[in-house]
Structures are given as C-alpha cells and as structure tokens.
TrEMBL record:
PANTHER family: BRANCHED-CHAIN AMINO ACID TRANSPORT SYSTEM PERMEASE PROTEIN LIVH, HIGH-AFFINITY BRANCHED-CHAIN AMINO ACID TRANSPORT SYSTEM PERMEASE PROTEIN LIVH. The chain crosses the membrane at residues 12-35, 42-59, 65-86, 98-121, 150-168, 196-216, 247-267, 279-296. Belongs to the binding-protein-dependent transport system permease family. LivHM subfamily. InterPro entries: ABC_transp_permease, BCAA_transport_permease. CDD domains: TM_PBP1_LivH_like (cd06582). It is a multi-pass membrane protein. It holds the Pfam family BPD_transp_2. It comes from the Bacteria. The keyword Metal-binding does not apply. It is found in: Cell membrane. This is Branched-chain amino acid ABC transporter permease. It comes from Streptomyces anandii. Keywords: Amino-acid transport, Cell inner membrane, Cell membrane, Membrane, Transmembrane, Transmembrane helix, Transport. Signal peptide: none annotated.
Length: 310
C-alpha cells in the first residue's frame, strides 16, 4: 500500500497520454463517423517532427528550455500536415463509400506512415534517443515525479481547457457541434462542413503531437512503431469514455491508464497470478477492460455523443 500513491500517479500520467491521443479519435468519429486507425501514426510523426527540429534545425547545444517550445511547434506542424493530407487525399474521396472502405484505407495509411518514417528518417530503424528536460527527479512524500512528467501533467489539462473553450465558445466550435449532430442541416444553415472536418482532423493531430512529445520526454526514446499499440489503447480509451464525447476521451484515458498500472503492479501479488502481473500483460488488461465495458456499458462511461444518421 505504500506504493499506491506512486502507482496512481503513474496511472494518471499514462492515462493523460492516452487521453490526448483519444481526443483525435473521438472528434473525428463524432463528426464523420470514421475510425481513423492511422491516428496512432500521427502521434508518432509528431514525436519525430519534434526530434527533427532538435537535431536538424536548432544549433547544437541549445538548452532544452529554449528548444522545447520550438520542438512542440514543429511536432504540431508535422502532425497537422499529415492529418490534413490524409483527410484530403485518403478519406474525403471515400466519404460516401461503404464504411469498410475508409476503415481499410485507415489501416493501410497507418502501415504506410510507419514505413515512410522508417525509410525517410535514417535513425528510425531502431529506437532513437529523445532529448530530456534537465533537473529532477522531484519527491513529494512517497511519490517521485520526473521532469518530463511535469510537462505531461501540465499539457493535458491545458489542452483540455483550450479544446473546451474552442468547442463551446467559438463559431467554428459551434459549427463542429452542428456538423456532428446533422451535417446536411448544418450545410443548409451555411456551415462549411468540409472545413469543419479538416479542423477536426487538425485539432486531433495537434493534441496527438503534444502526446508524442510527452511520450519522448517520459520514456527517453521514440521509434517508428510506437504509435500502433498506443493508438489502439487510445481508441480503447475513446470507447471507454463514450465515443464522440470529448471529455469522455480524457476520462476514459485516465481510467484506462490507472487500471493498467494497478493491474500490472498488484495482480502479481495474488497467489497463482504472478506471471499475469508482468509488464508484458499490461496490454492484455487494457483490452480486458474494454471488453467488460462493451459488455456491461457499451455506450461508455459518459455516454456516446454521436447522432443517428441511419
């Protein structure tokens, strides 16, 4: 029990990262009802965009306190360009096609982005070291927090606050809500639905890029395969919180992160369950939680916010 506060903080950190990526899934699905399985790779390209700024653009020896904001901007630019390009050239032509077509396209795009980074970035063939913020670790009672963790704990609530303001208070945000409820009626009322969809992809990519930078700062390395499993878990978080529900995506991510961390830490203490508490089983427990939610509360913890367009 002495380790419980530390495990809860670890789960909060992991869940915040899941939540940042899950926002992109839930925003896109809420508006165009598309499961963008390439979103995990957008998270990955954002991380490599940040690394590219640090390695190839900034002068050598640049302080991380100066470099980090520029890396964050580079990550967001790269991720947004990839997401908007995917929407324009891969998804928009299939918008009226049967749902299976864009789903298969998303899976193909996911593999293509992995291979593109693998081929284009010379050091991506193995895990690449990510620059770290100096200082730390910090100790609060029994809890230890790394400097990179502070970035994540700060970025996640700020991102949610900015998103909430944008969706609720701006004209474009209200257009997103209208398009999500009824795109045909929104178009008749003067809403440019194509522009709204592009904005949804861009916003989701920006939050994924923040998550990609946070991943690099937390784990100290990135590679071209990092987005696949984390993207699946982020999708699990979106379903867990209620697909189409922006706040549910973050709540679902935090619940998933805490559940995964506690399962990994404590299941091994149960007699006969020692092997099931290993780190290799962390992914299994995440999807076990998804199955349970789909069985007993398929609408998610906060409920779906997707209009019926049948």
């Amino acid at each position: 029990m002495n380790e419980l506060p530390q495990q809860l903080v670890n789960g909060l950190l992991l869940g915040s990262m899941y939540g940042l990526v899950a926002i992109g899934y839930t925003m896109v699905y809420g508006i165009v009802q598309l499961i963008n399985f390439a979103h995990g790779e957008i998270f990955m390209t954002g991380a490599f965009g940040a690394l590219t700024v640090y390695v190839y653009i900034l002068p050598g020896g640049t302080s991380m306190w100066v470099a980090l904001p520029l890396m964050l901007i580079g990550a967001i630019i790269v991720a947004v360009l990839v997401a908007v390009g995917a929407e324009r050239f891969a998804y928009r032509p299939l918008r009226t096609a049967p749902r299976l077509a864009p789903l298969i396209t998303a899976i193909g795009l996911s593999l293509a982005l992995q291979q593109a980074v693998w081929a284009w970035y010379p050091e991506a063939k193995s895990a690449r070291t990510f620059p770290q913020i100096p200082g730390g670790p910090f100790h609060i009672g029994n809890v230890t927090i790394q400097t990179g963790d502070i970035f994540l704990l700060t970025a996640a609530p700020i991102s949610m606050a900015v998103l909430a303001y944008f969706v609720m208070k701006t004209r474009t945000g209200r257009g997103m809500q209208a398009t999500a409820q009824d795109p045909d009626t929104a178009k008749l009322m003067g809403v440019n639905t194509d522009r709204i969809i592009v904005v949804a992809f861009a916003l989701g990519a920006a939050f994924a890029a923040v998550g990609g930078v946070a991943y690099g700062l937390k784990y100290g390395q990135i590679d071209f395969r990092m987005g696949f499993i984390l993207g699946l878990k982020a999708f699990t978080a979106a379903v867990l919180g209620g697909i189409g529900n922006i706040y549910g995506a973050m709540i679902g991510g935090i619940v998933l992160g805490i559940a995964e961390t506690l399962a990994t830490a404590y299941i091994s203490d149960i007699p006969g369950m020692d092997k099931f508490g290993s780190q290799s089983w962390a992914d299994v427990w995440a999807f076990v939680l998804l199955i349970l939610v789909l069985l007993f509360r398929p609408q998610g913890l906060l409920g779906e916010r997707v209009a019926d367009r049948a």
